[in-house]
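Fold in tokens:
===
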Amino acid sequence: MQQRKTREVSIGSISLGAGHGIAVQSMTATRTQDLEATLRQVRLLEAAGADLIRIAIDTVKDVDALAWLRPQTTANIVVDLQENYRLAEKVAPFVQKLRYNPGHLYHLERSKPVAEKVRYLVDVAREHDCAIRIGVNCGSVDPEKLSKYDKDDSITPMVESAAEHCQMLDEMGFHRYVVSLKDSDPNKVIEANVRFSEARPDVPLHLGVTEAGMPPDGIIKTRIAFEQLISRGIGDTIRVSLTLPFERKGEEVTVGRQILADIASGRFRSVPKFEQKGLNIISCPSCSRVENEAFIDLALSVREMTEYAKEHRITIAVMGCRVNGPGETDDADLGMWCAPSFVNLKKGTTTIGQFTYDEILGRLRLELDKLIEEKSAAHQPA
């Protein structure tokens, strides 16, 4: 185990970096405005031992729900500012950390310089004693960064985006921040975090494989990334992202702690590089942005239905919301992102159509069979 001592970042009752232990966090899966259900999620995650609990906020009604929740828990709460960064000043009094996505800032108020938006977030965080996470995701990278590099290079734009935002915060005199660079491919997570940590060894890192999917595959992907990074001293807090029924979300914390215990004891279960063989199903962890809970059942049904194609090297993505769904299905051979009453089906970046939850499995199978035929024909000798 290598030791990598970053700067210290305090978040409520805990501190990251500077030799502190690795914190384990998770995220509520219910709609934030469903008060009792979300409170139940918070208590489940607290009982499982979560050091930080993330909640997504996208509307003023979500802020009202957070205000109701805050007096009922002593948990360190991270707010996930998705498509409305201007809510930061309303939620900051109730939380210990603000998370923003540089890619989302690019799309909002396009006439306003990104640095001005970041300055606003820094001012709010400073006023309310909050830390910040710069959260870069593979499916929502700043388009200007993507356009600079070959389409097959998804890692360099992520690392560059994270480094650019770190520099902004540094120049503003704000150093109480952490960074995350996430992808659904553990190999890309490993490379992105290694590259970033070499460029900015002082910055604490939040590790995670986004849309890792369902157990056991999602656990295996996550374990591989964590084992390869933490063994090099990279990683100060972790999130295990699994597609699970709401009542089982505490398993994300339990799995995370087990992986950390195994790494500390030298019990490694991975090979140095994750090799995807055969069918690969990625699916996001359910969270408050999911617009229909049927998404979870759909992900399970997709895994069962596609069992016949398990030997084929094909990636299928099942995404639960409009925030990350459109972008994070682009790299899959077949992708679905779920709306309240229908499912958008894509082939690569091309949208095939919208189908009801009852129709989607049949159409997915049809497209999967076509894709298998296409790939088989492509490998036939001329």
